[in-house]
Design goal:
Elements (H helix, E strand, L loop, with lengths): L1 E5 L3 H13 L3 E5 L2 H10 L4 E5 L7 H10 L6 E5 L4 H10 L3 E4 L4 H16 L5 E4 L2 E4 L4 E4 L2 E3 L3 H12 L7 H8 L9 H14 L4 E4 L3 E4 L7
Parallel strand pairs: 1-2, 1-3, 3-4, 4-5
Antiparallel strand pairs: 6-7, 7-8, 8-9, 10-11
Helix pairs in contact: 2-3, 6-8
């Protein structure tokens, strides 16, 4: 999953990015509303964390512009304001959730996980596809109850596919959602990670759809 953090407080920005990266996300960052709005319009993020009190362009204006242009990316707003009217303004502009500063990082991470689950149609922190289970809260993967150790990139790949079970996902889409903006992207590495995942999982849930991409499907599971 690839996220965008738009926060002008450098210390807080770094803390949020570090926590998200440690949780297994690819993260891009912006320090003002103008840059944040541009990134949100040009990059395919799975979710955005957006501060309201931004320089150049305020967060509500940024979010309003995204929604006006039909962009449906889930957004969590950050605000130091306690007035209920500011929260209402954020929701009316198109926010999906909010966190009031100061906050515990675990709360923000939990809200990000919940937002990603809801946007993909999953109700709980555990996502299953046949014998494979992925716990988004702990970052653990198991097959038939047996833990499977994955690298960070393998986990990101499996997590994205499991959040989109039953839908064909192209290599290009995987590349866009697994790596941050500064990463030297090569879609050919996706095939390598798919091969490693299949070997580690030991079950045939990742189907290759020739010319289109990959499909996570438990109906044809073979051990």
């Amino acid at each position: 999953m690839r996220l965008l953090v738009v926060e002008d407080d450098r210390t807080l920005n770094k803390q949020i990015v570090t926590a998200l990266e440690q949780a297994g996300y690819a993260v891009d960052t912006a320090m003002d509303g103008e840059e944040g709005q541009f990134l949100g319009e040009t990059e395919p993020y799975d979710a955005i964390i957006l501060d309201l009190g931004l320089p150049k362009v305020d967060g509500v204006s940024v979010l309003t512009a995204w929604r006006r242009d039909g962009r449906k990316t889930p957004v969590i707003i950050l605000t130091a304001r306690d007035r209920w009217s500011d929260k209402v303004q954020g929701f009316d502009a198109g926010a999906d959730d909010y966190v009031t500063k100061p906050f515990h990082m675990e709360e923000l991470l939990a809200r990000v996980r919940a937002l990603l689950r809801r946007s993909a149609g999953h109700a709980t922190s555990e996502i299953a596809c046949g014998p494979v289970k992925l716990d988004t809260r702990s970052g653990r993967v198991a097959v038939d109850g047996n833990p499977v150790k994955l690298t960070s990139h393998e986990y990101r790949l499996l997590s994205y596919l499991m959040h989109h079970t039953g839908r064909i996902v192209s290599r290009g889409e995987l590349t866009e959602h697994l790596y941050d903006q500064d990463f030297d992207r090569d879609s050919n590495t996706i095939e390598v990670f798919i091969g490693r995942l299949r070997k580690k999982l030991g079950v045939d849930i990742i189907q290759t759809v020739r010319g289109l991409g990959y499909l996570l499907d438990a109906s044809q599971t073979k051990t």
